[in-house]
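In this supplementary section we document a worked example of the pipeline. Step one takes a protein sequence of length 221 as its only input; no multiple sequence alignment statistics are reported here. Step two produces a three-dimensional model, which step three serialises into structure tokens for compact storage. The input and output of this example are shown verbatim.
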Amino acid sequence: MRVYCVSNDSEMFIFPHAKNERGLRPQYHAPYVEALKMVGCHVPDCISHECMDPSLDQYRIEIGEGLGGRFTEVRRFQKSIEGSELGIISSRHGLIDSDKKVLPYICAEGRRMNVMDLDDRTSFVESLIEIHRTYEIVLMFVPRAYTEVIMERWEGSMKGMTFVTSQSLFNDLEKKGATVLPRRGARVGRHNLEPIMDDLTRNGWCGRRDLNPSSKLGKLK
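The serialised model returned by step three reads:
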């Protein structure tokens, strides 16, 4: 049984040992900004061209490790499911594997129109459909705008998919065969941990559940 988790990006963080959060953000990290200027580039946004100069390689980070905020909850949860994989719907790159190395960027895709444009540029919904064909279980931790666009452009059944998203979308998702759980601020949330584990079991997950008292999210083995 193969499990694939998907979330969207949040603010990019560069160096985990910076003195304050502001210093972690790409536009405020002076060495990074200066290195980009030296090769005629700026901090990447949603649609700017990719700077391929080798001198920038030291600043490329795995996107799954470079995202902060509430995304860390999804990352921690995914790592607790042995053998699972994690994908990011990047507002710059579309759907990519979490170990893909990218230059830190600034790009917020919170509105539905932005997400539609993102799909037009990167075909991330088509990529999700292919993931759905390949993996028996797909866990989606995405906000309302992303879910709406995915539903509108999705062809076929969503059986085997679990969405943690806005409750106002539950009926439409259930009609397509998906399982739905409420998104209450956090992207996983302790309130959703047990239902997600139960849904994994219902969908054929054979792993033994072993809650780890030292972890807020527990551990799957």
